Amino acid sequence: xxxxxxxxxxxxxxxxxxxxxxxxxxxxxxxxxxxxxxxxxxxxxxxxxxxxxxxxxxxxxxxxxxxxxxxxxxxxxxxxxxxxxxxxxxxxxxxxxxxxxxxxxxxxxxxxxxxxxxxxxxxxxxxxxxxxxxxxxxxxxxxxxxxxxxxxxxxxxxxxxxxxxxxxxxxxxxxxxxxxxxxxxxxxxxxxxxxx
Amino acid sequence: xxxxxxxxxxxxxxxxxxxxxxxxxxxxxxxxxxxxxxxxxxxxxxxxxxxxxxxxxxxxxxxxxxxxxxxxxxxxxxxxxxxxxxxxxxxxxxxxxxxxxxxxxxxxxxxxxxxxxxxxxxxxxxxxxxxxxxxxxxxxxxxxxxxxxxxxxxxxxxxxxxxxxxxxxxxxxxxxxxxxxxxxxxxxxxxxxxxxxxxxxxxxxxxxxxxxxxxxxxxxxxxxxxxxxxxxxxxxxxxxxxxx
Lengths: 196, 244
Prior knowledge:
The structure holds 2 protein chains of 2 kinds. Chain A is mostly helical. In chain A, 89% of the residues lie in helices and 0% in strands. Chain A has 5 helices and no strands. Chain A has helices at 2-11, 13-25, 36-169, 175-188, 190-193. The N and C termini of chain A lie far apart (182 Å). By secondary structure, chain B is mainly alpha-helical. Chain B has one domain. Chain B has helices spanning 29-50, 58-78, 86-102, 115-137, 155-167, 169-202, 204-240; strands at 19-20, 23-24. Chain B has a two-stranded antiparallel sheet with strand order 1-2. Chains A and B meet through helix 2 and helix 3 of A and strand 2, helix 1, helix 2, helix 3 and helix 4 of B.
């Protein structure tokens, strides 16, 4: 008998609990159907309005904003890429120009060096020729002078001797006689006094 | 009376009684929080989409991050065919999330802690998905109940199980959200009651529990909204891309 009551109390515990709850506040308020229709109505209304406003007005705007930003960023990236390429080609051009001008400068330098050396050589040659001619001329002149030198010396000797005689003995002597002596002497000892 | 953890779920009329025919559609505290949640969503997302700057401000960033979050969730679970239903799933996710989150503020009412609300949402989804499935695949949609690669002997059993699992979708979907919200809020209320009854000496332990539970419940509020939305996506995926 006691056992039976014990098991009953375990088995029907749930019902007792429910009765206790029901006695206190009417169980779970969620299961009270009094405001179900009202909740369904207001849920449909608010959610419907929310859905319509979001889908027709707000979400397309956000989507457009995102798309716009994406495309703008894409555009900027493309523009940056293009500018990078441009600057790269410009740099290449610049390098080419520098290289070309360096080559040109080298060529010009080479050409001008060749020209200058040629000029120098030419001038040297003409100068040498001139010098040679001058030397030749001088040599000829020297030769001429050499040839005419004894006569001049004779003349000087004659004058000098006449002067000497005049001073020594105070007598004037005929130039012709002196010249005869000088000529005689010079002919006799020509080789002794002149030439090597 | 205040110690009863279930009083927080009571619905009461605000303002006069409104009746259409025999139906009572009075404005209640539940209706108030539905309106508040919807208005909050509309205000936040309207502000977030008003001005389009290349560098978004905080509210615009919030709106755009939510947009891409939901968009990614849909494309990951239901593929590109689900794009026309994006607005619905977005509204659904935001509505459930905001109702859950508003319920976390003390003395507020949690709309989603009522079985009737979640059941209406889940039934709508269930009916909608079924209609979409039959429109897209005709009677071929019934192939959903016949998985491929199952031995013929087991087939009758499998088909029955599949049909039962399909039909219980709205129940599982609605009860999951409702039970999570109700259990969490009841637990918080119970621990709050312990704080009062144990007083200044022993009340610190339940108080710290209550603080921890608040964090957990905020996580659950987000998670349940996410689960609700992602399950909708999965059901939609079944209807759009018949895999079986």
